[in-house]
């Protein structure tokens, strides 16, 4: 026998290796449960009270005829009568739809193009680009009501900034003339909307892979060809966001026209009709609710496809 014997090696078992037991989640303390309940419960209750309950109430009241006086027992249910009246007999409805469409087309063309151009220029890291970016975005911080007050001073016939700069013999009533006041207000809305579009496109340009531009340059593409055939298609998600934001902005436009002239004399919009019918002298809550439901339906026609695309893309990734 040898003096030293080798120690036998341990043989691994034939079965699978033992599974490691994961750590058990620590139970929430009583204070943590209270904080979590408040953080989830309070926003949920506020959301239900100020969004869903009024929305469902408007849908229900759109099938009724009620002037807001008395209790709920005084409500007369008339079915789809309000919708039939709006589409066939309400003289202000179709001009308001036309104005909303003009508003939408204008925002899609003018501020979107201007915002894209400004974003491309600022993306080149110009000198003082931070100052330019802040100055161009500043109008977006202002509310549409405040923008309306500012541009009222600019458009005032006597002593207004625009007429003083133009130096016309006969001052133009930019707000009072129903043939031009819609486009004058659209310029004011575009002044505010351009900065937001610029910021969205600037963020999109920063996210584009520089290797794509370098590859296009090596293939002999010019700067314009690189932008329209490489950069712009890559920014498809940003383009979708810009389109959705612009549509919503056009549909919810209310503050600026209501500040200027109560949304009348050529500035009728669907949102103005809702307000006029609900809190106006006639106080036709049923018809105002029906116009609100129509506006909501149009908005959902844009929002739902966008959300479907976003969530389906997340599920694919």
UniProtKB/TrEMBL annotation:
<dbReference type="GO" id="GO:0005886">
    <property type="term" value="C:plasma membrane"/>
</dbReference>
<dbReference type="GO" id="GO:0055085">
    <property type="term" value="P:transmembrane transport"/>
</dbReference>
<keyword id="KW-1003">Cell membrane</keyword>
<dbReference type="Pfam" id="PF00528">
    <property type="entry name" value="BPD_transp_1"/>
</dbReference>
<feature type="transmembrane region" description="Helical">
    <location>
        <begin position="290"/>
        <end position="308"/>
    </location>
</feature>
<feature type="domain" description="ABC transmembrane type-1">
    <location>
        <begin position="97"/>
        <end position="306"/>
    </location>
</feature>
<keyword id="KW-0812">Transmembrane</keyword>
<keyword id="KW-0762">Sugar transport</keyword>
<keyword id="KW-1133">Transmembrane helix</keyword>
<feature type="transmembrane region" description="Helical">
    <location>
        <begin position="238"/>
        <end position="260"/>
    </location>
</feature>
<feature type="transmembrane region" description="Helical">
    <location>
        <begin position="34"/>
        <end position="53"/>
    </location>
</feature>
<dbReference type="InterPro" id="IPR051393">
    <property type="entry name" value="ABC_transporter_permease"/>
</dbReference>
<dbReference type="InterPro" id="IPR000515">
    <property type="entry name" value="MetI-like"/>
</dbReference>
<protein>
    <submittedName>
        <fullName>Multiple sugar transport system permease protein</fullName>
    </submittedName>
</protein>
<feature type="region of interest" description="Disordered">
    <location>
        <begin position="1"/>
        <end position="23"/>
    </location>
</feature>
<feature type="transmembrane region" description="Helical">
    <location>
        <begin position="134"/>
        <end position="154"/>
    </location>
</feature>
<feature type="transmembrane region" description="Helical">
    <location>
        <begin position="180"/>
        <end position="203"/>
    </location>
</feature>
<keyword id="KW-0813">Transport</keyword>
<keyword id="KW-0472">Membrane</keyword>
<comment type="similarity">
    <text>Belongs to the binding-protein-dependent transport system permease family.</text>
</comment>
<dbReference type="InterPro" id="IPR035906">
    <property type="entry name" value="MetI-like_sf"/>
</dbReference>
<feature type="transmembrane region" description="Helical">
    <location>
        <begin position="101"/>
        <end position="122"/>
    </location>
</feature>
């Amino acid at each position: 026998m040898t003096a030293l014997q080798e120690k036998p090696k341990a043989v691994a078992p034939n079965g699978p290796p033992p599974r490691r037991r994961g750590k058990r989640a620590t139970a929430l303390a009583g204070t943590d449960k209270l904080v979590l309940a408040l953080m989830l419960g309070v926003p949920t209750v506020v959301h239900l009270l100020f969004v869903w309950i009024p929305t469902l109430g408007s849908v229900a009241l759109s099938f009724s005829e009620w002037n807001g006086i008395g209790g709920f027992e005084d409500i007369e249910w008339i079915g789809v009568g309000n919708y039939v009246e709006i589409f066939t007999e309400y003289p202000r409805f179709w001009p308001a739809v036309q104005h909303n469409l003009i508003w939408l087309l204008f925002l899609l063309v003018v501020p979107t193009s201007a915002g894209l151009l400004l974003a491309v220029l600022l993306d080149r890291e110009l000198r003082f680009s931070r100052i330019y970016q802040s100055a161009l975005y500043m109008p977006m911080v202002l509310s549409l009501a405040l923008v309306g007050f500012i541009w009222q001073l600019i458009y005032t016939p006597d002593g207004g900034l625009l007429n003083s700069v133009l130096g016309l013999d006969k001052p133009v009533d930019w707000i009072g003339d129903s043939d031009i006041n819609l486009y004058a207000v659209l310029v004011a809305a575009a002044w505010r909307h351009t900065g937001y579009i610029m910021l969205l496109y600037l963020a999109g340009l920063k996210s584009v892979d520089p290797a794509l531009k370098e590859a296009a340059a090596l293939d002999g593409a010019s700067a314009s060809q690189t932008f329209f055939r490489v950069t712009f298609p890559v920014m498809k998600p940003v383009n979708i966001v810009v389109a959705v934001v612009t549509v919503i902005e056009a549909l919810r436009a209310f503050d600026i026209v209501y500040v200027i002239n109560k949304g009348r004399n050529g500035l009728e919009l669907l949102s103005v009709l809702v307000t006029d019918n609900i809190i106006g002298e006639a106080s036709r809550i049923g018809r105002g609710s029906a116009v609100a439901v129509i506006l909501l339906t149009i908005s959902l026609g844009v929002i739902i496809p966008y959300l479907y695309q976003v969530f389906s893309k997340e599920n694919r990734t």
